[in-house]
Design goal:
This protein is mainly α. Helices cover about 85% and strands about 5% of the residues. A hairpin with a 4-residue loop joins strand 1 and strand 2. Helix 2 packs antiparallel against helix 3, helix 2 packs antiparallel against helix 5 and helix 5 packs antiparallel against helix 6.
């Protein structure tokens, strides 16, 4: 009796007999682990690609509207946001490269960035210097970014990867705090009307 592994789009199926399982349990378990880690790496690389897309697009949006941001939140906070997104992007790429996930991660990042860019451009239209519209966009954007970082945080807790855990904690905290700041800015805009 032999173990047959049949590749499918989302998962791997094992066909085996009970005799094989009892005769070669270590081989069977090692095959299960290989499939588990392959699927885990695919999921992880795609999720890392998504948070990379948020970091890249966040900075592109701020840079395109930098004058409005600097007037609204100051030079120091604007620079801090740009630096944090750059640092996260660098660390995400390093983590993916270290774990052999760069190609899949970069492809997913580009796909996600394209979708987010279309959404942003549709939302903002020609209002790139309207800080109220920018903050409204960023409330959606930062909420989604925070949610994606929480997925990475969950992955890191099950994978026991200390580097990923530290990055996820930092990313989640940063985007949660930024979302809170954006919400405060929106409240002030509402109070001023």
């Amino acid at each position: 009796t032999e173990l047959r592994v049949e590749e499918q789009t989302d998962s791997t199926l094992f066909s085996f007999s009970n005799q094989y399982l009892y005769k070669y349990p270590r081989l069977f378990i090692s095959q299960l682990l290989i499939c588990y880690y392959k699927n885990m790496n695919e999921f992880t690389s795609k999720k890392l690609g998504e948070v990379l897309a948020f970091a890249i697009l966040g900075n592109e949006t701020i840079e395109r509207s930098e004058v409005a941001f600097r007037e609204a939140i100051g030079n120091e906070l604007t620079a801090h946001i740009l630096e944090m997104n750059d640092m996260h992007a660098k660390n995400i790429r390093h983590l993916a490269e270290t774990n052999g996930m760069s190609e899949m991660m970069e492809a997913k990042a580009q796909k996600t960035k394209d979708k987010l860019s279309k959404m942003r451009d549709l939302y903002l239209g020609e209002k790139w210097n309207d800080i109220g519209e920018l903050f409204e966009w960023f409330s959606f954007f930062e909420g989604a970014s925070y949610g994606h970082w929480m997925v990475i945080k969950g992955i890191s807790e099950t994978s026991e990867d200390a580097g990923m855990a530290e990055l996820a904690e930092d990313g989640a905290n940063f985007h949660f705090e930024l979302l809170s700041h954006v919400a405060d800015e929106l409240q002030q805009i509402g109070e001023g009307k």
